[in-house]
Amino acid sequence: MLILVDGTSIFNACFFATMPKSYFAAKTRRERFRAMSRAMRAPTGEMVNGVYGMLALLFALVDRVQPSHLAVIWDASRDTFRRELYRGYKPKRVLSLPEVNRQVELMRRLLGELGVFQCDREGFEADDVMATLAERFAKEVEVCVYSRDLDLLQVVAPNVRFWLHDKEAAKRYAESFVRPLGPLPDSVFEYTEEAVERLVGVPPFLVPDLKALAGDRSVGLPGLAGVGEKSALRLVQAYGAVEEMYQLLEPLSYEDRMAEFKKHNLTATLLDKLFEGGDKEALCGKRAVLLSKRLAVLCRDVPLEAELDDMRLPRWSGLPAVFAKLGFKKLKLPRWERQQALFG
Predict the structure, then answer these.
(1) Single pTM value for the model
(2) Residues 163 and 209 in one domain
(3) Cβ distance 90 to 219 under 8 Å?
């Protein structure tokens, strides 16, 4: 099994989960620095709360799942091809916080010292790199993509699963009646093809079409103004991909479009939004939908020089020295006997 870890997403989760409550309540820069002084630190005084949290997560994952391969994927920068297409895409990024940036650099350096394969690519997001690696290696090994980003649901395939990092995973399992295919840490919810279709309402390859219609304010994805998730779901369930929907509806007169919509109990208001015009600069109607689809679809042909063997799980031989340097006295080590059983 190959586990692809969304380093940027998972590290952010670990950083904020281990910060004191006063950090989030801080209203001034001084209050924030005072709160940061209470965060976990190495003997050198360097903040290491996020590093500790991410190492603990990775070790728990390795212990429970026993993968043969592991890779941690990072965002290279906020300047990607999507921002060239649309400047409103992801205008704000958490990694601009200096306290996060410093620990990300430390985390990457430590993983490198431990022999963990890491990867990024300028001009692309970590999601694109993971989608590329998942498609490239799914024929050779089972692939699991681990992240907090539900955009990655679109990569789920017969030999590719998506693991959502979610502290409410147990509640999510109880409410959905979905069960993972194997043992997982408590904070992981597993999506298979069947789970995506049952819980989202469409197969994985149509997830970008939902985003194209409903948009996503959290990342600046425009979508259609006034169209929510429920309306988007009804449209995609009725017509499939947005390109196919427009191909079917565009040649029809308004009356025939309306008759077609009535077959699926869709409203005239929704039809008007799909074909809303405006000047050439206006982002609405078909122009907004197709742009949002391009932004939502993950790239699966990122140019990468990476082989599956590069990602073989390391032996963690440098752990004792790393732990001593950072003062991690309570962090649970991976199980050495399992490593020996796997790699001899």
Answers:
(1) 0.91
(2) no
(3) yes
